[in-house]
Design brief:
Strand 6 and strand 7 form a beta hairpin. By secondary structure, this protein is mainly beta. The chain has 1 helix and 13 strands. About 5% of the residues lie in helices and about 65% in strands. It has 2 domains: about 100 residues; about 90 residues. The longest helix is centred in the first third of the chain and has 15 residues. A 13-stranded antiparallel β-sheet has the order 1-2-3-4-5-6-7-8-9-10-11-12-13, with no helix packed on it.
């Protein structure tokens, strides 16, 4: 083999075996800040951010707060924000979740909220929000309100609301009620549909009275009641 052929073969082998290096790099960053005092108040902020080789940045921010007054009542809240931001414009995806809990004079009120705003992997819009609020006390009384709203791919707006209430008197008699409203609103005019339901149950001295009502677009389609002795 001639020297020229040997050099050419050596060059080819080097080009095949030489490692390839990506132009981009992966980065990671994390920060935490905590504040607290002797009274029990507490605050924490945490942020974690990572950028992958494809340029997508994922960020998670968490905020936690706890406040306590002189009577031992507390106020707690936690918010988590998740952000996915691929390369390009108009494709950021954000999820925010917030939970709170307030305790005062034996009554506890808690809330939960989740909001989604952005685009899915396939490019469709992701628009969703849900919230919940609950109140309870040591006597057994209970109040809850849940609301969910979303927009489908075809532009249809959907909302659902539910309210529940339970009350108990000094004699142990109970009153329970649940109402719901389901609204479907496609794109266009005069095509909204509203379905409302109501359920009530009252127990007094062993007598149970219950009723149910269903209304669609303002028209009552069901209205019934009954009484039963336990």
């Amino acid at each position: 083999m001639h020297i020229k052929d040997i050099l050419l073969a050596t060059t080819a082998m080097m080009s095949l075996s030489a490692p390839s290096f990506a132009a981009d790099k992966e980065t990671f960053q994390s920060t935490t800040k905590i504040e607290k005092d002797a009274k029990g108040n507490y605050s924490e902020n945490t942020s974690v951010s990572k950028t992958g080789l494809d340029g997508t940045t994922n960020t998670e921010d968490t905020k936690l707060d706890i406040k306590v007054d002189a009577n031992g009542n507390s106020d707690k809240s936690k918010t988590v924000k998740l952000i996915t931001d691929p390369k390009g414009l108009g494709n950021k995806h954000v999820i925010v979740v917030t939970d709170t809990e307030k305790s005062k004079d034996g009554k506890v009120t808690s809330t939960h909220t989740k909001t989604v705003d952005g685009k899915n992997i396939d490019g469709t819009k992701d628009d969703f929000k849900t919230s919940s609020k609950v109140q309870t006390d040591t006597n057994g009384n209970f109040v809850e309100k849940d609301i969910t709203t979303k927009t489908d791919i075809d532009g249809t707006k959907i909302s659902y609301e539910e309210n529940a209430n339970v009350s108990v008197d000094a004699n142990g008699n109970t009153s329970k009620s649940t109402t719901t409203e389901h609204v479907t609103d496609p794109v266009g005019l005069l095509n909204k549909t509203v379905v409302s339901t109501s359920n009530v149950e009252k127990v007094t001295d062993g007598l149970v009275k219950s009723s149910q009502k269903v209304v669609i677009d303002g028209k009552t389609v069901e209205n019934s009641s009954q009484s039963v002795v336990k």
